[in-house]
Amino acid sequence: MSVEHPEEGLSHPGRGRGLRDVYANRFLLKLLVRKEIKVRYRGSALGILWSYMKPGLQFIVFYVALGLFLNVQGSTPNYPIYLFAGIVLVNFFTEALGNATRSIVGNRDLIRKIYLPRELFPVASVWVSAVHFLPQVVILLAVCLFFGWVPTVWSVLALVGAFAMVAVLAVGLGLLFGAVNVYFRDSENLVDLLIMMVTWASPVLYLWSQVQHVLGPWFNVYQLNPMTVGVEIFHWAFWRPTLDAEQLAASAAAEVPGLFGFWLPLTAAVTLLVLFIGQVTFARLSVRFAQEL
């Protein structure tokens, strides 16, 4: 620090480098993820098995109500795979967003005592949800292999890309609502409403072609939702390869036109915009977290 410029080398209190601080503090992130997992299942007899209860119960209810009672499986071959492929991705997003929204308020004691990058808490919540997501994907893989699924390099890359996009979307929205929730606790209720809508706003229970038939030109607006494209990619990678040639020819929903050449890059740009807005909002509001909590 020079005499001419005494402020050189100093930084403004409470001002960090955003998500770059998360990468620089990877060890702290790892500790937070472990803490979240231990706290969540402390005193639980079943432990992490509870993470399978929600998707399992959802799958049974939706399959019985839609697949059997409404006979959706009659028009959608291998409907159980179609249904479960969408459920596992949507559940990852909803769990990640809900926990990230509550992460700052839920760690108020730690935030008031010591300083560490505040972004660590929403990001750690998304990582914990990813830990729950991976075993569910293993189950999905086993079922798909039983139905003749053969992985390819492109399908694996597509799955990784779709998951990464949804994870980044969860981080961006988690930063946004997690910061606002410190000042306005109504944000939790708003996020709960969004979570309730996600399953129905993406082609998890129905076919995208049905939406196109009803919405017409407005289908393009529906496709701007990154979750919609993420679910469609999971269907393309998991469900579509389990169909035989006759089923592929008969199914108009086997692949969305322009899915990878147009919709994926476009929704990836939307996701990055959401991340930018979430990070900027979080940075502006995080300065007074300790006082507000």
Record field, number of beta strands: 0
The main sheet comes to: none
Relative helix content: over 70%
Uncertain residue ranges: none
Distance between the termini: 35 Å
Fraction of residues in β-strands: under 5%
- Protein structure class: mainly alpha
Overall spatial form:
globular
Mean pLDDT: 85
Radius of gyration: 21 Å
- Element string (H = helix, E = strand): HHHHHHHHHHHHHH
Number of helices: 14
Walkthrough of the structure:
With 293 residues, the chain is mainly α. 73% of the residues lie in helices and 0% in strands. Helix 4 (79-106) crosses helix 11 (226-239), helix 7 (153-183) packs antiparallel against helix 11 and helix 11 (226-239) packs across helix 13 (259-285). The model has no long low-confidence stretch (mean pLDDT 85).
Secondary structure layout:
Elements: H1 19-24, H2 26-40, H3 50-69, H4 79-106, H5 108-113, H6 120-146, H7 153-183, H8 186-201, H9 208-215, H10 219-223, H11 226-239, H12 245-250, H13 259-285, H14 289-292
Helix pairs in contact: 2-6, 3-4, 4-6, 4-7, 4-8, 4-11, 6-7, 7-8, 7-11, 7-13, 11-13
